[in-house]
């Protein structure tokens, strides 16, 4: 039962999905920080009193127009840290384990035969067989001699 669980985890799809979820949620934090701390204050300032210009950034007493660039930078740094941790603690070891497994089995990714390769080989063999005539040189009457 544990061997099956290990095989389930060692398939690349599970690890790829987990990494995608973690990195996606970290990127969501960047988008949220950008929207909440840059876009919404700018929109609130522009639509607030009908005046458009740089003066809206200097309005005091209106917390809805406060542009917080530090929160966006913090979210970006957090994203980079999370991505680095995921890469170095999950992706790199899993790639190394996959290389060791392939080395132990004696195959590499380049040596694996794909379905397309097999179908191409079958097609080529059938084409050669058809070009050479019926198998074994036998004719329709079974005599083995060809009429010329």
Automatic annotation (TrEMBL):
UniProt keyword Cell membrane, yes or no: yes
Under PROSITE patterns, the record lists: MSCL (PS01327)
Q: Where in the cell is it found?
A: Cell membrane
Transmembrane residues, as ranges? 12-34, 66-92
Which keywords has UniProt assigned to this entry?
Cell membrane, Ion channel, Ion transport, Membrane, Transmembrane, Transmembrane helix, Transport
Determine the domain of life of the protein's source: Bacteria
SUPFAM superfamilies registered for this protein in UniProt: Gated mechanosensitive channel
Q: How does it sit in the membrane?
A: Multi-pass membrane protein
Q: Name one GO cellular component term.
A: plasma membrane
Instruction: Offer an example of a GO molecular function term for this protein.
Output: mechanosensitive monoatomic ion channel activity
InterPro entries, A to Z: Mechanosensitive_channel_CS (IPR019823), MS_channel (IPR001185), MSC/AndL (IPR037673), MscL_channel (IPR036019)
Cited Pfam families:
MscL
Look up keyword Cell membrane and say if it applies: yes
Spell out the PANTHER family in the cross-references.
Answer: LARGE-CONDUCTANCE MECHANOSENSITIVE CHANNEL (PTHR30266:SF2), MECHANOSENSITIVE CHANNEL MSCL (PTHR30266)
Note the subunit structure: Homopentamer.
- Similarity section: Belongs to the MscL family.
| Physiological role | Channel that opens in response to stretch forces in the membrane lipid bilayer. May participate in the regulation of osmotic pressure changes within the cell.
HAMAP family tied to this protein: MscL
Q: What is this protein called?
A: Large-conductance mechanosensitive channel
Q: What is the originating organism of this protein?
A: Corynebacterium sphenisci DSM 44792
């Amino acid at each position: 039962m544990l061997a099956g669980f290990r095989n389930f985890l060692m398939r690349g799809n599970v690890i790829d999905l987990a990494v995608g979820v973690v990195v996606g949620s970290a990127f969501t934090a960047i988008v949220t920080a950008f929207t909440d701390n840059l876009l919404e204050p700018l929109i609130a300032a522009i639509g607030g009193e009908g005046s458009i210009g740089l003066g809206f950034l200097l309005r005091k007493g209106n917390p809805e127009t406060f542009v917080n660039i530090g929160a966006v930078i913090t979210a970006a740094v957090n994203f980079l840290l999370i991505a680095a941790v995921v890469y170095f603690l999950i992706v790199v070891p899993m790639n190394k384990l996959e290389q060791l497994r392939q080395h132990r089995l004696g195959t590499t990714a380049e040596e694996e035969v794909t379905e397309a390769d097999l179908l191409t080989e079958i097609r080529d063999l059938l084409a050669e067989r058809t070009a050479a005539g019926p198998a074994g040189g036998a004719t329709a009457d079974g005599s083995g001699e060809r009429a010329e």
